[in-house]
Write a structure and sequence with these properties.
Pfam family, one: E1_dh
Strand order of the largest sheet: 1-2-3-7-6
Bound molecules: thiamine diphosphate, magnesium ion
Domain Dehydrogenase E1 component: 65-345
Radius of gyration: 22 Å
Helix content: 40-55%
Number of domains: 2
Shape: globular
InterPro entries: Alpha-ketoacid_DH_E1_comp, DH_E1, PdhA/BkdA, THDP-binding
Cofactor: thiamine diphosphate
Largest sheet: 5 strands, parallel
CATH topology of the largest domain: Rossmann fold
Organism: Streptomyces phaeochromogenes
């Protein structure tokens, strides 16, 4: 590709200013639940303060630690992909607060249905980060045992996990359990039929499920204004359940709002839609180049709202963390980076035929045929002299 052709495609968004303005949803800016401003100031909120009222300085440091370690892990994974150790990586950079806040709101017996980007939630659920890397390295056929941590497998088929979550939640209700289910999905996924069906089913069956939409403003190269004429959280109203927009870069607000929504589900009050308003700071995946479709200024504006920095400012200003804490965490981050790097490099390659196993409990003629085709394909590379 020539430099000219790249440049010609670059201003797609700014050139469309007029079009974007015409598509802006009507009415004033929607309300955003925020407990911690981008400047790190704690602000009161009559409705949601109660859900974090008893949070201790230690727990606040814990949230900070979770976000820092998740970001460090994510950076290591991106580097590992660049060095050819992973096939692909989907970075969560910028979305740490949305994931850690909501992930820490879940109870051990709750069940989580993630997309492919929920590394921070996986961390909160206790899934070993090397399992996530094994999946993106293509060596562990899907990842982990979902029932060990009540954390379902990563789902790439956009929006489909909301249906799985709804069905699971209906089962939870039938069992008479008081646990809840949370389904993660993106702004792009909100346009999928599966998500609409999930909203309908969960509403009419009063299923104990929280729909946690991370609106990171982009679905690969599609901006959110191409997904909806109204703010995403307002869609819930049409289905008959509440929707709330929360500052997705405010870990305290995400924790409080998700706790509230999960408690509603436990009490039998049905589904809730939480729209965590955030930003994907990196590329969609390591295969994507966002400079082709979005302006640098947009990213810079979101940098000022960084989820980690705002909690750090708050911790320092309120004397809840000292220099020793930050230094220790820095060392812990480096150790985590080293640990996952070494673990990835030590992962053995799977047997090439293992992928055909466990597709069906009793085997299948079509899988047998595919296995035979693959064997023939592999044999086609054999040296003539081999085996003599
Ligand atoms: C059913 C389906 N359609 C299309 C795709 C290709 N695809 C992968 S990610 C993606 C965009 C998803 O955007 P969003 O829901 O906003 O989540 P994000 O990646 O921003 O976290 C698309 C269209 C897919 N994986 N599955
Ligand atoms: Mg998105």
């Amino acid at each position: 590709m020539t430099v000219e052709s790249t440049a010609a495609r670059k201003p797609r968004r700014s050139a469309g200013t007029k079009r974007t303005a015409a598509k802006k949803p009507p009415g004033a800016q929607p309300e955003l639940v925020q407990l911690l401003t981008p400047e790190g100031k704690r602000v009161k909120n009559g409705e949601y303060d109660a859900y974090v009222a008893d949070i201790t300085p230690e727990e606040l440091r814990g949230l900070y630690r979770d976000m820092v370690l998740t970001r460090r892990f994510d950076a290591e994974a991106t580097s590992l992909q660049r060095q050819g150790e992973l096939g692909l990586w989907a970075s969560l950079l910028g979305q740490e607060a949305a994931q850690i806040g909501s992930g820490r709101a879940t109870r051990e017996d709750d069940y989580v249905f993630p997309t492919y980007r929920e590394h921070g939630v996986a961390w909160c659920r206790g899934v070993d980060p090397t399992n996530l890397l094994g999946m993106f390295r293509g060596v562990n056929n899907g990842g982990w045992d979902p029932n060990s941590n009540n954390f379902h497998l990563y789902t790439i088929v956009i929006g489909s996990q909301t249906l799985h979550a709804t069905g699971y939640a209906m089962g939870v209700a039938k069992d008479g359990a008081d646990s809840a289910v949370i389904a993660y999905f993106g702004d792009g996924a909100s346009s999928q039929g599966d998500v609409a069906e999930s909203f309908t089913f969960s509403a009419v069956y009063n299923a104990p499920v929280v729909f946690f939409c991370q609106n990171n403003q982009w679905a690969i190269s599609e901006p959110t204004e191409r997904q909806s004429r109204v703010p995403l959280y307002q869609r819930a109203q049409g289905y008959g359940f509440p929707g709330v927009r929360v500052d997705g870069n405010d870990v305290l607000a995400c924790l409080a709002v998700t706790k509230w929504a999960l408690e509603r589900a436990r009490r039998g009050e049905g589904p809730t839609l939480v729209e965590a308003y955030t930003y994907r700071m990196g590329a969609h995946t390591t295969s994507d180049d966002p400079t082709k479709y979005r302006a640098d200024e947009e990213r810079e504006a979101w940098e000022a709202k960084d989820p980690i920095q705002r909690l750090r400012t708050y911790l320092e200003a309120s004397n809840h963390a000292d220099e020793g804490f930050f230094a220790e965490l820095e060392a812990e981050s480096e150790a985590l980076g080293r640990r996952v790097r070494e673990a990835v490099r030590a992962m053995p390659d799977p047997d090439h035929f293992a992928i055909f196993e466990n597709v069906y409990a009793d085997g299948h003629a079509l899988v047998d045929e595919e296995r035979a085709q693959f064997a023939a394909y592999q044999a086609s590379f054999a040296d003539e002299g081999e085996g003599k």
